[in-house]
Amino acid sequence: MSLQVSALYGSDAPERDQRAAFLSGQVPVAVYGLGKMGLPLAAVFADVSGNVVGADVNPEVVETINDGECHVEREPGLPELVGETVESGALRATDTPASAAADASIHVVIVPTPITEKKSADLSILKSVARDIGSGLAPGDLVLVECTVPPRTCEDVLAPLLAEAAGHDDFGLAFCPERTASGRALEDIRGAYPKVVGGVDDESTRAARLVYDHLTDNEVLTTSDATTAEAVKVFEGLYRDVNIALANELATLTDDLGIDVNEAIETANTQPFCDIHAPGPGVGGHCIPYYPYFVIGEFDAETRLLETAREVNDSMPRFTVETLTRELDAEGKSPEDATVAVLGLTYRPGVEETRATPAGPIASHLSEMGAEVVAVDPMLDDADGFDAEMVAQESLADRDLDAAVVVTPHEEFDRIEWERFDPMVVVDGRGSLDLDGTDHRVYTIGSG
């Protein structure tokens, strides 16, 4: 029997027929944004439904994907999945989002939502894509937003924008936040965590749940509305930012208390109601440093705790440099006469992302003090954008170092032969080193 289901929102077909139509490719999907989160999502949608067009404004990205190649690196399984789905015809790409919208019935949006210089949400890319989608939005189409946005964006911004561009309001709209980390995208999309969906109406929620039931092996959690789902995603980041700020502020008390704060945190966390995160030289990445500003200043209510947490976490690079300066001084060395290695420029181990990395301000503070700054990072080819000279890890021992700062503990750093270096000051930002038995002066943030 031939199914006659081309759209999911508002369909009066039995749900089993809607599911079958989606899985057979009869309900075409467009994924807008083919970056490090969007391409894995598009590939999984293609693997499940067999009929996906990915839209990205970068022609080079589109050409690469249509050649069956993967421009997103260090994602296990992704190059193979992209190659397979492109070869089978399940996945194709275009650099014209409006053309993708004209052919699709399900529209999945996963584009960047950064913050402006004035620390407010920048939804310009999202709005532009929404206008493109609206130009091809047919009655019964379903729009699924995965990128993180300030609460009330779907209700107050996207719904009226889509309706105006489409000339009607007969479409579904749901917020379904990505819960994906670089380096494990396929694993996360396919069910490492429950999937959250919330629509602007009950039918949007139902249709969104039907779709994600087939993408994830985990459960699909439905919220009361789209705004609640938006808040869920933002709250996850706010929790981590505030928690890390607590750990960081406690770490600054290490010397005053005369204790190993990391030991105290680890021991306190054996109590089931305590879960203090680990301190460090700062908070980086495209999520945690930005999400607080999707609430701060967006509403009339005061957000003193969120603002304080941001101030604490933003202060840690300077605290790290001040600690290094103090330890150099104890060795009779001035920063302006020192050569300092910054180990790790990316914001976390094993990924190439440098957005908001604390290594940036750390290198800048050191450079401003007159230090010669060299950097080592196995994930990067150069130190563009940093006040540092990139050097190979193998040549580090030739640089006559006076100090080193561990910002991001890539596993490659485990192979550093510290005994080859003359005694120097080492500030370990992540508690990743074991330099017992060496002559180096070591200060670990949170341990002293």
What are its keywords?
8-stranded mixed sheet, N-(1-d-carboxylethyl)-l-norvaline Dehydrogenase, domain 2, 6-stranded parallel sheet, 38% helix, Rossmann fold, 14 strands, 14 helices, 448 residues, alpha/beta, 3 domains
Provide a compact summary of the structure:
This protein is α/β, with parallel strands linked by helices. Helix content is 38%, strand content 12%.
Give me the secondary-structure topology.
Blueprint: H1 15-23, E1 29-32, H2 38-49, E2 52-55, H3 59-66, H4 78-88, E3 91-94, H5 97-103, E4 106-109, H6 124-135, E5 142-145, H7 153-166, E6 172-175, H8 185-192, E7 195-199, H9 202-215, E8 220-222, H10 226-251, H11 254-257, H12 261-268, H13 304-330, E9 339-343, H14 359-368, E10 372-376, E11 389-390, E12 403-406, E13 425-428, E14 441-444
Parallel strand pairs: 1-2, 1-4, 2-3, 4-5, 5-6, 7-8, 9-10, 9-12, 10-11, 12-13, 13-14
Antiparallel strand pairs: 6-7
Task: Describe the overall structure.
It is a single chain. The protein has helices at 15-23, 38-49, 59-66, 78-88, 97-103, 124-135, 153-166, 185-192, 202-215, 226-251, 254-257, 261-268, 304-330, 359-368; strands at residues 29-32, 52-55, 91-94, 106-109, 142-145, 172-175, 195-199, 220-222, 339-343, 372-376, 389-390, 403-406, 425-428, 441-444. The strands form two sheets. An eight-stranded mixed β-sheet has the order 3-2-1-4-5-6-7-8, with helices on both faces. A six-stranded parallel β-sheet has the order 11-10-9-12-13-14, with helices on one face. Helix 9 (202-215) links the parallel strand 7 (195-199) and strand 8. It has three domains: 15-224, NAD(P)-binding Rossmann-like Domain (Rossmann fold, 3-Layer(aba) Sandwich); 235-309, N-(1-d-carboxylethyl)-l-norvaline Dehydrogenase, domain 2; 316-444, NAD(P)-binding Rossmann-like Domain (Rossmann fold, 3-Layer(aba) Sandwich). It is α/β, with parallel strands linked by helices and 448 residues long. The mean pLDDT is 94. The chain starts with 14 loop residues before the first helix and ends with a strand. Helix content is 38%, strand content 12%.
